[in-house]
Specification:
Layout lengths: L15 E5 L3 E6 L17 H8 L3 E3 L8 E8 L1 H12 L4 E9 L6 E5 L2 E3 L7 E3 L8 E10 L4 E8 L6 H8 L20 E9 L6 E5 L9 H4 L3
Parallel strand pairs: 4-11
Antiparallel strand pairs: 1-2, 2-4, 3-4, 5-10, 5-11, 6-9, 7-8, 9-10, 11-12
């Protein structure tokens, strides 16, 4: 499979540009950087602001948690934003993540279907709620297991897009993501969760477009770059 070659971050740019054309941009967000501006002073530096400094027509289509790194798609102009947002709503954009989690996941492939809702007294935490939670589905696949550290590297495919879905689903089955301070994950220098894969049909010319990004905490295997 031929993947577009990444355009490495220039020091003055402040972000890594993975792909660009007249319709859309794909950037690689580092962990610890907001995707969009936050509330209050000191929370205006974010990926969209950095992207717009170079591409003023760039508009947000989706987001990643501040602690999560990886690929974010931006539309160029309001019409393209509407088209790409519709594709996300209709689940026409395939997303994959890679995570490092505690313990050995078994079985090696499966689905986590647990309804999620905001845990209002403990915001921004989310929780599983079988009475009023929104249906949520995550597919997972074990990539490898490190017995020495008792950690699993897993590929994750969120079918729905709830807030903190991957983090709460993995916690619920007893495999919290390493470095997840909010949900009691094993301490690490960062949240070990990276958006590694975006695949969709280009809205302008109809060609398949696939973008991939290696997680900073460990290189992807060929299995990730050629998902079943």
């Amino acid at each position: 499979m031929n993947l577009p070659q990444p355009s490495r971050a220039a020091p003055e740019r402040g972000f890594e540009l993975i792909y660009r054309d007249e319709c859309l941009l794909v950037a690689n967000k580092p962990a610890g950087l907001l995707a969009v501006p936050g509330r209050g002073e000191g929370k205006q530096d974010c990926l969209v602001a950095r992207v717009q400094a170079e591409f003023p027509d760039a508009l947000t289509v989706h987001r990643l948690d501040m602690a999560t790194s990886g690929l974010i798609l931006f539309a160029r102009g309001a019409e393209m934003q509407s088209q790409l947002s519709r594709m996300f709503r209709e689940r026409l954009v395939e997303k994959r993540y890679v995570a490092l989690v505690a313990g050995k996941i078994s079985p090696e492939t499966g689905e986590i279907a647990l309804p999620l809702i905001a845990d209002w007294p403990n915001r921004p935490r989310q929780k599983v709620d079988h009475d009023i939670g929104k249906p949520s589905l995550t597919r997972y696949r074990l990539l490898d297991y490190d017995a020495g550290n008792d950690t699993s590297r897993v590929e994750l495919e969120p079918i729905t897009g709830r807030t903190h879905q991957l983090r709460v689903h993995l916690l619920a089955i007893g495999h919290a993501i390493v470095g997840d301070e909010l949900y009691g994950g094993r301490p690490a220098e960062r949240l070990m969760l990276h958006a590694c894969w975006l695949s969709f049909v280009h809205p302008l010319d109809g060609r398949p477009l696939t973008l991939a990004s290696d997680p900073p905490f460990r290189a992807l295997t060929d299995a990730i770059l050629s998902p079943a």
